[in-house]
Design a protein that fits this description.
Blueprint (H helix, E strand, L loop, with lengths): L1 H21 L11 H11 L5 E6 L8 E7 L2 E12 L4 E8 L5 E5 L13 H5 L18 H21 L6
Antiparallel strand pairs: 1-2, 2-3, 3-4, 4-5
């Protein structure tokens, strides 16, 4: 009986691994979120003239970054990852200073059920903070979603910190 259970467990793990490996990873591509990233940059108030080099980091759990440039100088970075919502993954776009501080973030896929994640007062609690300084916070009515955002903001900033030496300055 133990052997049968072990075989069932192994087969289920193989099926999961195949599903994860065959998943369409284009949803993590910076290019697929270009308009949303540009909206996030505009909303953050950063003056820029182009998005520059793209740094995709699948080995970090799909925390991808691109430079935000003005007159050939990097003024900030945009990050893209996804947060787990109740029944799907939603894009999380971050705008990060060269020093690793969160300048702004945007959830373009958040629907009317999660409108409170677009609340400026809540977003402002996170601005200007690095990963260790981020508040532990939640929103009434969207607690699961807010906690996912909080965790992914922290993870994105840590991923940025670990890779920033390889990014264009």
């Amino acid at each position: 009986m133990k052997k049968v259970l072990f075989m069932i467990f192994c087969l289920s793990q193989l099926a999961f691994a195949y599903k994860a490996k065959s998943e369409d990873l284009s949803k993590y591509s910076i290019e697929n979120y270009n308009p949303q990233i540009q909206k996030a940059i505009k909303d953050s108030g950063i003056k820029y003239d182009k998005l520059g080099e793209i740094y995709e980091a699948p080995n970090l759990g799909y925390y991808n970054f691109t430079t935000i440039e003005n007159n050939g100088k990097v003024v900030a970075y945009a990050g893209l990852t996804h947060v787990k919502s109740y029944n799907k993954h939603e894009a999380l776009i971050t705008i990060i200073s060269p020093e690793g501080k969160l300048l702004d973030f945007y959830l373009p896929d958040a629907n009317e059920k999660h409108q409170n994640v677009h609340d400026k007062e809540w977003i402002n609690k996170y601005k200007g903070k690095n990963a260790e300084e981020l508040p532990v916070d939640s929103l009434a009515g969207s607690t699961f979603h807010a906690n996912s955002v909080n965790g992914e903001l922290r993870n994105t900033l840590k991923a940025f910190e670990s890779k920033k030496d390889t990014f264009k300055k």
